[in-house]
Amino acid sequence: MIFQSWRMSQREGLRADSSHFTLDGVPVQILGGSIHYFRVPRACWRDRLLKLKACGLNTLATYVPWNLHEPVKGMYRFEDQLDLEEYISLAAALDLWVILRPGPYICAELDLGGLPSWLLRDKNMKLRTTYPGFTAAVNSYFDKLIPIVTPLQFSRGGPIIAVQVENEYGSYAKDEHYLTFVKEALMSRGVTELLLTSDNRDGLKCGGVEGVLQTINLQKLSYGAIQYLADMQPQKPLLVMEYWCGWFDVWGEPHHIFSAQDMIAAVKELMDRGISFNLYMFHGGSSFGFTSGAVDFGSYKPQVNSYDYDAPLTESGDYTTKYHLLRDLLGSYQNKELPQLPAVQGRKVYEPVVFSQHMSFWESLRCTDMVFIDKHLIGILDYRTQETAVPHSERERILGLLVENCGRVNFGPALNEQRKGLVGDITLNHTPLKKFTMYSLDMTPNFINRLQSLKWKSTDEKPLYPSFFRGSMAVDGQPRDTFVKLPGWSKGVVFVNGQNLGRHWSVGPQNTLYLPASWLKSGDNQVERESPRHGGESVAEVLRAHGIRFIFTLVGGHISPVLVACEKLGIRVVDTRHEATAVFAADAVARLSGTVGVAAVTAGPGLTNTITAVKNAQMAESPVLLIGGAAATLLQGRGALQDIDQMSLFKPLCKFCTSVRRVREIVPTVRKALAIAQSGTPGPVFVEFPIDTLYPYHLVEKEVSPKNIPKGIMGKITAWYLKNHLTNLFAGAWEPRELSPLPVLIPQASDQEVQRCVELVSRAKKPVILLGSQATLPPAPVHDIRKALESLGIPCFLGGMSRGMLGRDSPLHIRQNRGDALKEADLVLLAGTVCDFRLSYGKVLSRRSQIIAVNRDRTQLLKNSDLFWKPTVAIQGDVGSFLLRLSKGLTGHRCPEEWPQSLKDKDRTKETANRAKASERTERHLNPLSVLYNVDKLMAEDSIIVTDGGDFVGTAAYIMRPRGPLSWLDPGAFGTLGVGGGFALGAKLCRPDAEVWIVYGDGSLGYSVAEFDTFTRHKTPVIALVGNDACWSQISREQVPILGSSVACVLAFTDYHIVAEGYGGKGHLIGREDEVQLGDIVKEAQRECRDGKSVLLNVLIGKSNFRDGSISV
């Protein structure tokens, strides 16, 4: 499924140059709502954003939490629940703008305000200042974060219209240079959208920075606060960045409720005054795990896990009275009907969980301290109580302290004082105690999974508190959202399927923990060691859900599970004789079907053999997914078979490269890769699968588990490490996951840009269109584009995949004398055509011509415009969609007919000369032009022409006439030899009834002649026309006259027809003596092809001067 992104215009982003905002030059009022992706289960993102849009809002605001994205210094997480790129892309697909709030500090009631706690290991750390230790950490983080979001900016086709600099710094204000540092850190990394700050009224004075719009946070809409902001920034638009429509809760105090009527009155006033606003929160969600923070305004108060916030949507995403009142109000201001309300999500009450097993905390060997003597609780210490009595005894006893981190303060001056654990002396009768043995219970999924392998006791035995308790929850049918309630329990933490729901504490106000359906699975909810399932099945399921029909491969044990699973699900597995052919075939499928082509190859040499084909796909802008095997995760870098750094090889070639590290990552990773391949400028993506992520648990366990465990402590540590690694590898592997396609971002021209082009074209007397391969990309159907071009009546030169767009004999298709036409033209439309060597770097364009350039890729759009040409209008957008809109805007207008007619007359003159050249007799063998004219005349109307060669193919490009759109395949700008076999294979599979021709040079044939075996085995018959002149003629044509030698240019008149027969095909040798029968031989080849045989026509050709002067370098 393809979604069109927000219209792109480099100069028309969000502007704050007057009393109102403008976007695309049009006045806008921002109606925003905050939803934090990290607080909403990924499976629920779409539901929550749809509800935001259905309420009448147009903008999504979200914080970006540094502490979650870099939980350990240097270890970054942007996958699964933290896939920020996918979240923003989803907003774009739903036509929502985005205000991004990347911090580095965000507050958000998160632990340490979203700053990573590891910063505090530096004893001299000064958070939120230009202290070198802090700025260095920010720079490293932004180096990872900002490149993810910059392509999603409005100016580059994405939805991000504004980026916030820090958060509420005016309330902290410890370094006057700090905001400037953050601003420059964003801008230097490519952030170009509107920058803003956000403060409450008291913080506005110290919270600004030059060149950045200030906004205000508030709950009560006092005129004084708004006017204060207006006075600070005369003639600037007003934005309430956070209108607090509720509030957060802390443990032990009542739940906050804010009147719906008061909220509606405030929003109505904002609407009436034209003030932009963002509801904080529109939907709060949950601070799962240990992510919630604390406040300290004189006393420490930890915050609850629920971030319900009394928002218009509840913690679990349900509608409230606030929502319905807000929707009614906003709907009354809009001149179109609001989207339909998404359905209410189902809930279910499950049977109570019986805890059948327990394990004492002391046997498992964060701010409250529980004090124990000989494992028995004797007291509790906290911020208020710092002493407890120890019962007297004469004997030696063990003092134990269980230290709980209830959350670091997230706001105010105490940020630098949030180190946790034993941060000072523990004294007994005023004597400091030393030599504590410390154990860290990080309570991560790894820790919880490790507990599963330890010895548990039945609850029939009385537990020694604190303890871990284990039970099973039965889920029948499709899982539903539910809540966990623990009546009678005092305090603890709840995990389900390895997911940390958060804390339970009987003091309230939170009495339940939200358990989303996506974290449950049918059956018994507890790694499934006996499951026969494997990662290859997950790969195949995603491919099938995306409509993938073929996967091309050269088999290898690293990837066998993928191939077997694909076959079982009905995806056709096509094995080739070379890995490059597999990628070329996937490339052809991508071009002809409008989907992603998929190839899978084994590790090491299997992948290195694909590099040329992947680079060709990159330069041809073909969406191809390359699946590569790899050494097992534990063995990488240790000398395993075929283990090399594959990621470094493919990063320069692919839009997206990643290595799957856990089985549960397979589905989201492959979905993301497929979306990225098609978004923006299409191109190849690479996903590496270590072998242990693809095979079943029992087989991986057999390989990982040591046969003989060494004795001693190192042996135990090794065994524990291997078991823990295996558990983490398969944890959550088979939980249900969304398989459907992610939104695809496609940049589009703005209405203003299209209108300007309409005006330019309407005034042109001699316009010309140069159409490139991008015109054939989805979403615009090629037959609609053909109609649009015919409606415009503008003469067209067609290149690359666009050859055939106008059919075989269109009066608008000009094939010859392009340079002369460009000199005469008063307007040139570069529709996906690039000013590279093919257009002499732009030098062929007349400086008198007005030039409209349209391209999805900004670099290609403006290539060499700094040297040889200048665009009148440069549009980063989809070519096909632009042509449809241009045609619609010019309805009733048509290019003056004498102009295309004059070009066509010159075309015919050149064609006549070419035909005369074809009638000339060569010194030996057949005239190549004559051969091509004769074959072209006999080709079927549904023919697809694949070209693979140099001189002979260059001649064919002038003579052969593709019959219709998407009926011509050439390598593209890279000029790659060897594409023929793969391209033809992919073409025949896509269109099994079509007659597929490969036009080969005899040199290029050598790369893929072995694929005749593939054609035979897979019953994909094609016809190969080989121009055999026993020479690398395109090179020889220049090398011999310039350098006086034909060294390395000479081949032999090889019997290629016999080679084809050896691979199961049919072969015909055609020489001068067969000239009269050439037509009959071609017809015989066509009959043999229809009967299921691939045919090779080995045509001996002579030399012609037709291409003298053509370039080879």
Automatic annotation (TrEMBL):
Enzyme Commission code: 3.2.1.23
Lineage: superkingdom: Eukaryota
Thiamine pyrophosphate enzyme TPP-binding domain ranges (all copies): 948-1096
Residue span, Beta-galactosidase galactose-binding domain: 466-525
SUPFAM superfamilies: (Trans)glycosidases, DHS-like NAD/FAD-binding domain, Galactose-binding domain-like, Thiamin diphosphate-binding fold (THDP-binding)
Major subcellular site: endoplasmic reticulum
Keyword field contains Transmembrane: yes
UniProt domain Glycoside hydrolase 35 catalytic: residue ranges: 21-331
Domain called Thiamine pyrophosphate enzyme N-terminal TPP-binding: residue spans: 534-649
A biological-process GO annotation: L-valine biosynthetic process
Database matches in Pfam families: BetaGal_ABD_1, BetaGal_gal-bd, Glyco_hydro_35, TPP_enzyme_C, TPP_enzyme_M, TPP_enzyme_N
GO molecular function ontology, one term from the record: magnesium ion binding
Catalytic activity annotation: Hydrolysis of terminal non-reducing beta-D-galactose residues in beta-D-galactosides; (2R)-hydroxyhexadecanoyl-CoA = pentadecanal + formyl-CoA; 2-hydroxyoctadecanoyl-CoA = heptadecanal + formyl-CoA
Protein's name in the database: Beta-galactosidase
Source organism: Electrophorus voltai
